[in-house]
Amino acid sequence: MQRTLKFVKYLPLCGWQPVVHTVSNPFWPLRDPTLLAELPPSVHVYRTPTFEFERLVRRTDGLLWRAQGNGDRNQARTPSPPTRGLLTGVLKALGEGVMRHVLVPDPQIAWVPGAFLRSVHLIRKERPALLYTSAPPNSCQLLGLLLKRAFGLPWVADFRDPWTQGIRHKKAYAQSAVRRRLEETFERAVIRHADHIVVTTDKTREQFVSKYSWTPREKYSVITNGFDPADFAAANSERAESLLDPADFNVTCTGNIEAMFDALPFLGALKALLDEDEEIAARLRVNLVGAKRGKYDAYIRDNGLERNVRYLGYVPHQTSLRYLVESDVLFLCQIPVLESAGTKLPGKLFEYLYLRKPILGLTLPGPTTEILSRSGLGVTVDPSDQAGIKKTLRDLYAQWRDGQGPPAVDEAFVDVFDRSQQSRRLAGLFDGVAGGRSEGTR
Questions:
Q1: Cis before 137? omega within 30
Q2: In this structure, are residues 170 and 142 in contact, taking their beta carbons and an 8 Å threshold?
């Protein structure tokens, strides 16, 4: 969302006027309406409704829970009659089967038919010079493919994450060979018919080039995610009383911790460090801003970490930036497998870079470690290396306690990730792909 929002914000300054077509009723529990203020008044935004199957699944799940004789989900489950339990199992299996075998490549495929018809009208009305789609959801790429075939407009397809090479997709393919074949076919068609492909890392580009060797390397461009200095100016202007105690050593992670990431080695290292050093135990605070409670609550409680590890819940973007501004070390973690750490860059990384503060990255070697190393800001540790994590936390605390200044930063390298610069790069790609077409919205 941040990536597309910033492109829409800065492209008008680069000679291109965006026209946005999105969904009017998405199923997503977290929203930050304050970000709408960043849209330039000149940008037309059209919204088309969809049927969100995931919303139906959530409601059905709630009905089944109550049908089993349960009330509040936090209360203990009461036994249900065998027939009711059987019905529940059948319905859940049916829902899982639909999600796995019918809603391909993702549940948002239900938006595509209505969105295609609306897009036909919008193209005739707005007369765009170029189409741009961004995924996930990968259904958006299929919409772009349909519109490309219908109108022949130049088309740039943006992949924020890998598609068929992604870790979650591979897990789904293990359960459904049909799904794998369908998505492979869809991806191949998108790569073939798009005029240009944009990806967020060099590793992802290499995957596409290797998999689709019949496409020239020049068809792919890398535009990473980035930071917007204006966001931090706004966050600083809104500061009132501190969100964090400046007397504490604050280590902060913004965004949810991936369900497939195992945080127990980190928590174990933290406990061992606190048990060894009373001074650190009194002053170190790990702030999880936006992380969901639940998975590690019992471990934190049973090991006496509740004072040192704090869940701060979901907050608006500007508030999350204030937490970063007031922190001493910024903390991120990636799933320690090739499909994640080896190819993807976490979006929070770039906001961390902007602040020029020490960054603790729990990740395997890959693009994240390369950027952290080149910037001069990062210390990376294998997510399973409990001893290494403990030592790094101790070292970072000592640097803070002793008042050491910020790390030596490669400023020119960090500035590359400015959203306005990235938008200029995208506008340059648009100029080349559109081939000098002067008609339409540019």
A1: yes
A2: no
Reference 203, options 379, 382, 340, 378; nearest CA is 340
Q: Per the confidence metrics, is the pTM higher than 0.90?
A: no
Work out the widest C-alpha separation in the chain, in whole angstroms: 69
Q: What is the pLDDT of residues 151-190, one digit of tens each?
A: 999 999 999 999 988 877 788 878 888 889 999 999 999 9
DSSP 314: -
Question: Please, what are the domains in the chain?
Answer: 2-52+106-226+418-434 (3.40.50.2000), 234-415 (3.40.50.2000)
User: Given CA atoms 166, 167, 168, 172 in this order, what sign does their dihedral have?
Assistant: positive
Hey, is 251 helix, strand or coil? strand
Residue with tokens 């952290």: 372
Backbone phi and psi for residue 195, each to the nearest 5 degrees, phi listed first: -75, -25
Looking at the DSSP assignment, which residues form a beta bridge with residue 329?
A: 251
Instruction: Please state, in angstroms and rounded to a whole number, the distance separating the CA atoms of residues 4 and 134.
Output: 8
> How far apart are alpha carbons 343 and 365 in whole angstroms?
10
